[in-house]
């Protein structure tokens, strides 16, 4: 300790060294949650449903934790809360709440109220196998078979299918994020699942769907899932969910020859081990369409270079 102090004095950084031992501001868990919610209210892309979910999380965690001060919360408190919620709700919902808790504690660390994130290494509940069981690669022909009473649902499906975005990310896309051939996905913690910003290549059709979504009043994601399920029954095709469209885009990119690392970056994932779960075999007709599309693209490129 004395040696570190001497080094700090020699290097003229004693103030930074002394700040490590400065007493942190004591704040209650409730006030920290209130500050986090107040910050969320300032994010223009946040829908009322998101804020309602955060309020419910705040109320449940504070009442179940049994601790009043933020600094007293430890990993065991978070594990008990996740275990209790896993018994009350679906594993997917419990996992989403754990993700929000991690975001909350990162917010507190940024405000210098605590030193470490007690929810960082907490193991989430095992997710439902529903998506894995029903996943199949959705082709353009299946999208065209879907009939909706409101055009906004078609815009949402095409935007998700062309970009591979999470539906929550799509709902926060702004017009200024959509460029001629690039979609900029913002990187602050309120706008992506894992706070990783990225740029996604988009075609003309995808850009049009994204612009229409950004200009429309979008329904709640759960409503989109229900309407999509009804449209699939009406068209007599296999069940399709918004997340399956993300799986489908990853599988199509892989069939087109895009490396797994590139797909991982485009999807905003932390590594290729997660991307592996998103890659599924394409039906023969879709493989033929993909090969034809690649040949057309290559031919257009050669013709352009010839000019």
Topology overview:
Blueprint: H1 2-10, H2 14-19, H3 29-41, H4 48-65, H5 75-88, H6 91-110, H7 130-134, H8 140-145, H9 151-163, H10 167-170, E1 182-185, E2 198-201, H11 204-215, H12 221-235, H13 242-255, H14 260-267, H15 272-275, H16 284-306
Antiparallel strand pairs: 1-2
Helix pairs in contact: 3-4, 5-6, 9-11, 9-13
What does this 3D model show about the protein?
This protein has 307 residues and is an all-alpha fold. It has a two-stranded antiparallel sheet. The chain is built from 16 helices and two strands. The chain has two domains: 23-127, Orthogonal Bundle (DNA polymerase, domain 1); 132-287, Intergrase catalytic core (hpI Integrase, Chain A). The longest helix is centred in the last third of the chain and has 23 residues, at 284-306. Residues 295-307 have low confidence and may be disordered. Helix content is 60%, strand content 3%. The chain is globular. It has helices spanning 2-10, 14-19, 29-41, 48-65, 75-88, 91-110, 130-134, 140-145, 151-163, 167-170, 204-215, 221-235, 242-255, 260-267, 272-275, 284-306; strands spanning 182-185, 198-201.
Average pLDDT value? 81
By secondary-structure content and strand pairing, the structural class works out as mainly alpha
How many distinct beta strands? 2
Stretches where pLDDT falls below 50 for ≥5 residues? 295-307
Helices and strands, in order, run as: HHHHHHHHHHEEHHHHHH
From the spread of the alpha carbons, the general shape counts as globular
Please work out how many helical segments DSSP would assign.
Answer: 16
Q: Which architecture of the largest domain does the CATH hierarchy give at level 2?
A: Orthogonal Bundle
- In CATH, the homologous superfamily of the largest domain goes by the name Intergrase catalytic core
Whole-number count of domains: 2
| CATH fold group of the largest domain | hpI Integrase, Chain A
Main pleated-sheet profile: 2 strands, antiparallel
Give the helix level as a range of percent.
Answer: 55-70%
Distance between the termini: 70 Å
Provide the spatial order of strands within the biggest beta sheet.
Answer: 1-2
Strand content: under 5%
CATH level 1 name of the largest domain: Mainly Alpha
| Rg (C-alpha, Å) | 23 Å
């Amino acid at each position: 300790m004395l040696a570190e102090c001497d080094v700090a004095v020699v290097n003229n950084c004693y103030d930074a060294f002394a700040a490590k031992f400065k007493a942190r501001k004591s704040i209650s868990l409730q006030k920290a949650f209130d500050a986090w919610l107040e910050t969320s209210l300032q994010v223009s892309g946040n829908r009322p449903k998101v804020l309602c979910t955060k309020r419910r999380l705040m109320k449940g965690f504070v009442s179940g934790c049994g601790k009043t001060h933020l600094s007293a919360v430890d990993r065991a408190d978070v594990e008990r809360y996740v275990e209790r919620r896993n018994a009350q709700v679906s594993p997917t919902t419990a996992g989403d709440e754990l993700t929000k808790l991690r975001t909350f504690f990162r917010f507190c660390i940024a405000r210098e109220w605590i030193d470490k994130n007690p929810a960082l290494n907490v193991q989430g509940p095992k997710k439902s196998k529903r998506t894995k069981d029903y996943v199949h690669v959705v082709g353009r022909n299946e999208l065209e078979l879907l009939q909706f009473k409101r055009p906004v649902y078609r815009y949402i499906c095409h935007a998700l299918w062309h970009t591979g975005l999470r539906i929550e990310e799509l709902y926060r896309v702004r017009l200024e994020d959509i460029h001629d051939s690039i979609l900029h996905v913002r990187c602050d913690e309120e706008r992506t699942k894992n706070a990783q910003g990225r740029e996604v290549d988009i075609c003309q059709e995808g850009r049009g769907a994204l612009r229409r979504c950004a200009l429309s009043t979008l329904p709640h994601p759960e409503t989109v899932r229900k309407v999509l399920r009804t449209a699939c029954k009406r068209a007599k095709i296999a069940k399709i969910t918004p997340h399956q469209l993300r799986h489908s885009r990853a599988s199509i990119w892989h069939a087109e020859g895009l490396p797994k690392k590139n797909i991982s970056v485009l999807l905003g994932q932390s590594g290729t081990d997660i991307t592996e779960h998103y890659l599924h075999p394409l039906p023969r007709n879709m493989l033929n369409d993909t090969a034809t599309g690649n040949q057309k693209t290559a031919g257009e490129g050669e013709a352009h270079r010839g000019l």
